[in-house]
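ok so for the tutorial part 2 we go from a plain amino acid sequence to predicted structure tokens. step 1 is just haveing the sequence, like this:
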Amino acid sequence: MKTDLLFREDAYLREARSQVLGHTAEGGIVVEASVFYATGGGQPGDSGMISWDGGKMAIATAVRIEGGLIALVPAEPVALPRDGIEIRQQIDWPRRYRLMRMHTALHLLSVVIPLPVTGGQIGTDKSRLDFMMPEPPVDVAALSAALNRLIERDLPVTTEWISEAELAAKPALVKTMSVQPPKGQGTVRLVRIGEIDLQPCGGTHVARTAEIGHVEIGKIENKGKQNRRVNLILQDA
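step 2 — the prediction. this is what the tokens look like for a chain of 237 residues:
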């Protein structure tokens, strides 16, 4: 049995009920269904709360474990809900929504800077992509302006699925060199932004680019002879 990935079906779902399937040796709570995004692809896991008849606890994050399951990680060492009990999950929505905005913005950054991506990390206020970029950009302000123009177009963000064989026949879809799409599942999830971007991704995103709001390209750091880190700052809504 695998955990039902509720966050993948609806990124705007804020709470849901689930049965506790068991516990990990480290004290994680293995769930039948998860509204908590599990850490992966440069996006941190969701935090929030769970409650059940007779108890509640804060959740620090969620992680993937063996067998296609997800475990919720308690924020404090308190008594865990027992196996088989039904729990109510509630994510920290303001934090998740900022991560959704940021993740979508990074996809657009890879359009504005059409170079191979060597790494990345998503945060609530600042995120970054590392590019194979021998020389720094000449005009960072122009890149920021171009990025915000894409955001303001209010493009739809949708998902679709293709087979692993189809993806293998279209290697240009994979922009990230450091993290390859998971293999062995038969299909791969793609995220499409209008007609300007299509790439494999399992993260959570906003439904339209205008939801991102204003962003600014921050410091560009030299991370090696062929590698530069481009920081992206999300302005408060």
